[in-house]
Specification:
There is one protein chain. This protein is mainly alpha-helical. It contains 5 helices and no strands. It has a single domain, classed as Four Helix Bundle (Hemerythrin (Met), subunit A) (Up-down Bundle), CATH 1.20.120.
């Protein structure tokens, strides 16, 4: 799943580099497109770094959550960038970005499920540790103090 997620995300980089939101602004587009494009490029980099961290240690819930949140942030920003691309540059490029984002939806859903499963597993581990700690406290408190020799 992570390999597929990373491969799809890496496809976006060169395409985002082809976009020219400064030209769009000169043609009458809102200046916010430039910021959104920059944000999308940053979010893409953060997503790739986060996914790489998760791949190294897949049992870390914070890394899994970070990857999921980065993916969601990128998708949110891409929506506006796609709209600007379609209106001010090239609808075919917008369709390509949309297609890549859509292909990664399956990976996002799988990642979301993985995060839920991982969180449930961690919660179960904590419950087991708490029960064991309680058992040990009970055992220790029920022991009779031994006298000094």
């Amino acid at each position: 799943m992570l390999s597929s997620l990373q491969a799809r995300a890496k496809q976006l980089g060169p395409i985002l580099d082809q976009l020219k939101p400064a030209d769009w602004v000169r043609d009458g587009a809102p200046a916010q497109y430039t910021g959104q494009w920059n944000t999308a490029k940053s979010e893409l980099g953060y997503l790739l770094a986060s996914a790489q961290t998760l791949a190294k240690d897949p049992d870390k819930l914070p890394a899994a959550l970070d990857t999921l949140f980065r993916m969601q942030a990128l998708n949110s920003t891409l929506g506006s960038v796609i709209e600007g691309t379609r209106k001010y540059q090239n609808p075919a490029i917008a369709d390509l970005v949309q297609a890549i984002a859509d292909e990664n939806d399956h990976n996002r859903d799988r990642l979301r499920q993985y995060v839920m499963d991982l969180a449930a597993e961690k919660e179960h581990e904590l419950q087991v540790m708490d029960a064991e700690a309680q058992r040990c406290r009970t055992t220790v408190s029920n022991q009779k103090p031994q006298g000094k020799r």
